[in-house]
Amino acid sequence: MPPPPPLARRLLLQPLPSGARALHTTPGVLACRLASRAVVRFAGPEAARFLHSLLTNDLLSAFSAAGASSPQRYAPTPNAPARGPAAPAYAALLTPQGRFLYDLFLYRPPPRSQMLDRTGSAPETGEAPEGHPHLQEVLADVDAAEVDDLVACFKRYRLRSKVEIDNVSENFACWQRFGHDVVHTEPSTQEPEAQSIGWGQGVDHAGESAAQGNDHSWQWLKDPRLDYLGYRGIFPADTIPPLVESDKEADERHYQLWRIENGVAEGSTEIPKGEAIPLEYNLAGLNAISFEKGCYIGQELIARTHHRGVIRKRLMPMKFVDGNGQELEQAVAPGSEVVDEASGKKVGAVSTALGSRGMGLLRLEEALKPGSALRAGGNRDVRVQAIRPDWWPAEWTQVLQEQRAAA
């Protein structure tokens, strides 16, 4: 008998809470603590460079560009950094064969030397000295079910690099703010509600500070993947993040459903560890992969697949309905095949299912074919509607359209 899944996963496998099935039609902003995520700290003078050499994204450029472009504050605000925090980055660690292992949200906390004290006076230098431990500290939001294996994996790669790697999940927690009303296209990385707090719509920076962070300046920052996904942050485990009200703190399954509806997988349960090809799981479209940086683990396969230009299978959101188009709750289990009714051929499989929604790796030609009829394998009464997410770039399906036009 297999061992039970970790607690975070068992919570997500429980029946969907009342009202969650209608989340995609419900306005408002929700926030939830992500029990499925843990926090790992990389600290030392070579921490950022160490991660940059292993992961799929260009972390050195991301952190330095964010710091250089962050606006200077023109009014002293206690507990807020002298300039804006670096935007988080999203990246993945791959196997040498280019298969997915772990996804990481990476945050560079502001150095304490940049923090204003309680009196509101400016920091002495405004910058940490070279080699200052905080300058090279990176916090990573990772899959809680894999955190021990992830830490062990990074320690194997550490060799002589000057970096310490620790699981600090007892001290920190990951949170997400999401929903229709939080989606926006502003260039700022900061929570829009925080910008409008106080007199003068944001001139009151003390009010802004109170809304954004606490005495350690932990803040909500724009999710680095998509505007659709709202805001994400790491906060001390013993505090409630700013802007979170008791009546708006949601069960994590609401957030999972929000991701499923937008076709965004997260963690090694939804992106099969050691098996998934990152481009098929849309990691390039989620800002997790840089095609400009130098070498990293697994780069050869990623570059070859990318330059070939055709991805025939992709992770897609789907809806489970009956013959009349009515949504069916809890009718399909992860691992179920998706079959083309006309040909009887397998089109793909369901990787994640929650309520009447799911995600799965499907062959684009069959899944997006006009008039196609898909069903859950082994259950002729359950139809599968594959959905092309709004955020997908046009070129992902342009080749298929050209092929149909030529035929």
From TrEMBL:
Pfam families: Beta-barrel_CAF17_C. InterPro entries: CAF17_C (IPR057460), TrmE/GcvT-like (IPR027266), YgfZ/GCV_T_CS (IPR017703), YgfZ/GcvT (IPR045179). The lineage of its organism: Eukaryota, Viridiplantae, Streptophyta, Embryophyta, Tracheophyta. It comes from Zea mays (Maize). GO terms for cellular component: mitochondrion. Gene3D superfamilies: Probable tRNA modification gtpase trme, domain 1. Keywords: Methyltransferase, Mitochondrion, Transferase, Transit peptide. GO terms for molecular function: methyltransferase activity. This is Aminomethyltransferase. It is found in: Mitochondrion. Its main location: mitochondrion. Residues 312-393 form the CAF17 C-terminal domain. GO terms for biological process: methylation.
